[in-house]
Amino acid sequence: AQKAPKVWRQLQKWGKDMDLEHWNFLSEFVELQKKIKAKGKVKDDKSEKIAPDYTYIKDLVGGRPVLGHPLREGTLRLRYGRARVSGLSSSAIHPATQVVLNGYIAIGTHIKTERPMKGSVLALCDTIEGPIVKLKNGNVVKLDNFEKAKNYVKDIIEVLYLGDILINYELFLNRAHKLVPAGFCPEWWVYYVDKEKASDKELVEKLIRDPLQTKITFEQAEKISQETGAPLHPDYIFFWNAIQPKDFLNFFNHIKNASIQPNKIIVPWDDEVKRSLELIGIPHTAVMNEYVVIEEPYNKALLANIGNFERFPSLLDSPLDMVNQVSKYKIMDKLGTFIGSRMGRPEKAKMRKLTGSPQVLFPVGEEGGRLRCFQSALEAGKVTAEFPIYFCDKCNRNTIYKVCEVCGNKTQKRYYCRQCKKEIESEECPKHGPDSVIPYKRQEIDIRHYYEHALRLVGERSGPPLVKGVRGTTNIDHIPEHLAKGILRAKYEIYVNKEGTTRYDMTEMACTHFKPAEVGTSIEKLKELGYTHDIYGEELKDDNQIIELKPQDFILPACDEAMEEGADKVFLRVGKFIDEMLEKLYGMKAFYNFNKPEDIIGHLFVSLSPHTSAGVIIRAIGFSKTQGFLAHPLLHCLMRRDCDSDEAGVMLLLDALINFSRGYLPNTRGITQDTPLVLTSTLLPSEVDDQILDMDVCWRYPLELYESALEYKQPWEVDIETYSKRLGKEEQYEGLGFTHHTSDLNNGIRCSAYKSLPSMEDKVKGQMDIAAKLRAVDTDDVAKLVIERHFIRDIKGNLRKFSMQQFRCVKCNEKFR
Fold first, then answer.
1. Mean of the pLDDT values across residues 243-262?
2. Contacts with 203 (C-beta within 8 Å, 6 or more apart), sequence order
3. In what order do the strands lie in the sheet with 259-261?
4. Rounded distance between C-alpha atoms, residue 361 and residue 351, angstroms
5. Among 447, 293, 282, 285, which Cα is nearest to 362's?
């Protein structure tokens, strides 16, 4: 049912040619599905085009705030485009939006959305609109940068507009969602500017070339509209359709009769006019509940919008149409479409730990105590568990290793007959055949013997204060790791995964371009790695030049604000562990020789995603200050993933080559998933997940997209260059475009407040505080959903568990009921 829209999209293209007309029932099913999700409700002004979708909000979780109800004005406004750190199901918001949400939404945080996708991981883009907020003193302020937002956040009483969410064309195309109107924006506006008619051709050329980063004054914008007939620039228009027609008439009369001065407009206080000013998004100052003052440049912009006082607007259905009756210039709709959303999973970047946080896949049995540590087992002097059976001819004794820990000779494999209850030398018992023979037996070993020899092997006298193992091995042959590896891992404070490696898990985030300053890598090092020129063909000289990321390179997370250690610190220690292991266990030279995190740059890793068994060889080229796995969309698709909250793990290549063993994997169904059974070193775009084919790769969207969105056309009716058009060509690996610049991908909230708050009470309080100040959120509905959808269900589950509770002995872990 979830895939019905995507299936129907394909059937519309080739269903008739394949004689699949009997699947046309999907058309009715998709329409019915939309109606059910909308709860039978539709938007007044778009009743035949778009309906609210409540799916994302019906399973609300306590502590994770709602950012906006479906299609509610004031929540995230749709902006078409792709930043260099978005795409492939991820989107971008303004850094100031993070601040007004009290830090709950960080870089890499997942949100569930109303449309066009079910969910998305959020990155940053500061060339889109930020929030408009009302302060405690009544002032209305537009927050257009991160620092400004931090200065005002404590004084915010209401968030009138949350800001834009940047969603690229790919998501509408891939999800088979019809295009919906966007609010008027600079990249749309430039299509109406006729350069030949403008007197300041240099400015206009600059605007056309880069409409987002080229800022113009009101006087310049007005002059361009006068000369070229273009609509007034989006920076100087307002959300006129956010008020009612009758409210506009009242507003118009008050502005007409206000004190209009050269540098400001002073409006006598009126509650309805004040609210209209707030809703249409005009920054202003409230003076003692007596006056409202609109200062430059917004006073001039307002007069350009409605300052033709010789005319009087007639009452129409749309306030925007009424504005255009009295405006000096063409005024476009700035509202567009608002997209409801709520917080999903917080961002993640941490070393993977198994239950009990073991450092070696070596059993400690019940003797390991509740911590499953060797220190407890050493006190007991033994470990009782399943171990393989080997025999050393030279020492004339049994051991659990393939190589004797005493003399270093290779040992002989022995077996155990369960019926004879004795060890044998072959896989088949002479009396009972092969069915009764197993390659291990439950035995009691002298743990002090093995531990002391492991210490001697690694050159340690006493070893770390705590070394943790597993209760028992779960692989089919009960093969343990060498105990010396656990001692070394404990020395470097790293942990082992089920297959013998040390894995670091991260939230997947798309990235096609980066700046050297953002990843902390020197120009010289980047040139060594093959990054010699920026996207404009200029030689790499400056830390702020934009460089295109190579498909099999990635950026590791090193977030100081995170609750867990960054990958820089973890892999620095992993590299030291591997070097000492090579020297002490294998008698080889050290390979990595890491002394500082920067030494990791340029080395090879293996990336792996859940439910797959093929690792991909990749290269680290720097560290971001986020908690995301920043990688090329092609790499994400090679791992059969996108960026809608999926996670991926990485490990050092040598760790995988030396320490991974299929023999360590538990003997359970599906356990070979999420393990590097095979490695691939070549990325072939024709063999990756097909979502990449729908990703737009252009540098600018055409006017056709914005005009088609006004008519709610299907995305495939618009001709935009997608990756599918580059497949098999030389440019399939490089030259990808993006539409919106980001000054710094790290400059925002990097760790969600949700993760740092200690209790559910604090999290829910924060959730309700956010709901109370967001105009687009119904606070009562949020409280109702949290209680009904989360707390009542949890209480029922807790009562059930309470009635079945057990008691555990803290010494031996025995459970009683």
1. 95
2. 214, 216, 220
3. 259-261, 264-268, 291-295, 285-287
4. 17
5. 447
Q: What values do phi and psi take at 605, rounded to 5?
A: -130, 170
In the chain, the amino acid numbered 417 is C
- What is the C-alpha separation between 364 and 469, in angstroms, rounded? 6
Residue 46 in this model has a pLDDT that exceeds 60: no
In this structure, are residues 447 and 383 in contact, taking their beta carbons and an 8 Å threshold?
A: yes
pLDDT at 43: 43
From 337, 341, 339, select the one nearest 66 (Cα to Cα).
Answer: 341
- Using CA atoms, how far apart are residues 655 and 240, in angstroms rounded to an integer? 60
Query: What's the pLDDT band for 38 if we cut at 50, 70, 90?
Result: low
- pLDDT band for position 2 (cuts 50, 70, 90): low
pLDDT, mean of residues 111-116 = 95
- Tens of pLDDT, residue by residue over 149-166, are 999 999 999 999 999 999
Residue 438 CA, chain-centre distance (Å), reads 47
Instruction: Tell me which amino acid residue 489 is.
Output: R
Distance, in Å, from the CA atom of 236 to the CA atom of 181, rounded to the nearest integer, reads: 19
With helix as H, strand as E and coil as C, how does 653-693 read?
HHHHHHHCCHHHCECCCCCCCCCCCEEECCCCHHHCCHHHH
pLDDT at residue number 648? 95
Helix (H) or strand (E) holding 275: helix 271-279
Strand partners for 239: none
Q: How much of the chain, in percent, has pLDDT values that exceed 70?
A: 97
> Do 179 and 704 form a contact (C-beta atoms < 8 A)?
no
DSSP, res 475: B
Q: Which residues pair with 629 in a beta bridge?
A: 508
**In 27-131, which ranges are E strands?**
66-68, 76-80, 91-93, 110-113, 119-124
What does the radius of gyration of the chain's CA atoms come to, in whole angstroms?
A: 32
Residue 282 to residues 196, 203, 252, 300, Cα–Cα distance (Å): 32, 26, 14, 11
CA–CA gap between residue 146 and residue 125 (Å, rounded): 11
Where would I find the beta strands (DSSP E) of 108-202?
Answer: 110-113, 119-124, 132-135, 140-142, 156-161, 164-167
Task: Using alpha carbons, list the distances in angstroms from residue 224 to 55, 230, 407.
Answer: 45, 7, 88
Is the Cβ–Cβ distance between 580 and 458 less than 8 Å? yes
Taking the C-alpha atoms of residue 648 and residue 665, their distance in angstroms, rounded to an integer, is: 19
pTM, two decimal places: 0.91
> Which is nearest to 418 in space by CA: 400, 431, 436?
436
| Sign of the torsion angle spanned by Cα atoms 73, 79, 85, 87 | positive
Per domain, the residue ranges of the chain are 1-37, 48-183+337-346+699-784, 186-336, 366-491, 504-698
Kindly report whether the peptide bond that precedes residue 297 is cis, defined as omega within 30 degrees of 0.
yes
Please name the amino acid found at residue 508: E
Task: Name which residue leads in pLDDT, 265 or 801.
Answer: 265
Contact criterion met (CB below 8 Å) for 656 and 676: yes
Report which secondary-structure segment, H or E, holds 97.
Answer: helix 95-100
Q: Identify the residue whose tokens are 């119904």.
A: 778
Average pLDDT estimate for 629-642: 95
Q: For 382-423, write each residue's pLDDT tens digit.
A: 999 999 999 999 999 999 999 999 999 999 999 999 999 999
**617 — alpha (psi -120 to 50), left (phi > 0) or beta?**
beta
pLDDT band at 258 (very low <50, low <70, confident <90, very high): very high
Strand runs (DSSP E) across 231-327, as ranges?
A: 259-261, 264-268, 285-287, 291-295
Long-range contacts of 227-231 (CB under 8 A, 24+ apart): 227/197, 227/198, 227/199, 228/192, 228/193, 228/194, 228/197, 228/198, 229/192, 229/194, 229/197, 229/330, 230/189, 230/192, 230/193, 230/194, 230/330, 231/184, 231/189, 231/192, 231/329, 231/330, 231/331, 231/332
* DSSP label at residue 514: E
